[in-house]
Amino acid sequence: MAEKGILVVVSGFSGAGKGTLMKRLMEKYDNYALSVSATTRAPRPGEEHGREYFFHTKQEFEELILQDALIEYAQYVENYYGTPKAYVEKQLNAGKDVILEIEIQGALKVKKKLPDTLLLFVTPPTAGELKNRLVNRGTETMEVIESRLRRASEEAQGMSEYDYILINDQIEECVDKMHAIIQSQHEAVKNRRDFIEKITEEIAVFEKGEEE
Fold this sequence. Notes:
CATH architecture of one domain: 3-Layer(aba) Sandwich
Distance between the termini: 25 Å
Order of helices and strands: EHEEEHEEHEHEHHEHH
């Protein structure tokens, strides 16, 4: 049976490069699965059910909430977004390390429900660099950029709740560091309970003076 995967939640400021980081991680290493969120928003052109999102009606989504079928969920601008429990568990049981990209509030809800979750927060090296990245993307007005920076100021208050801070300066270096942190969790005591139980039972035989 495959060793169970680790559930990893990645959050970070808008402009920190989370998307690029995760895309590169998936290209470079093959033991990861990205969690697919459920949503009630309509699919955009080119999006497929089960690939970008699991698309549901409001009634279907509320049924999932009632069945406790979501690890976490939230409502943004009239639409629900959430993390389906069955999909994540299937990937973890297959030995994949599952990465979930969500905001701080959702991340803390996941940690509360599943305490063994690894929380990673991605940030540029400086506030000036954060602003530069948002400006250089060239996709948003200054007004939107300023609102993202104000939001970053609020988000910074939650950074200390995370297990690790990843400074995304050089992308390749950051990807390798992220991979190393996640893989190290496989050896953490909390993720080695089955092994500890097994070897403790085996070693107990020596106490009785029997040798194998």
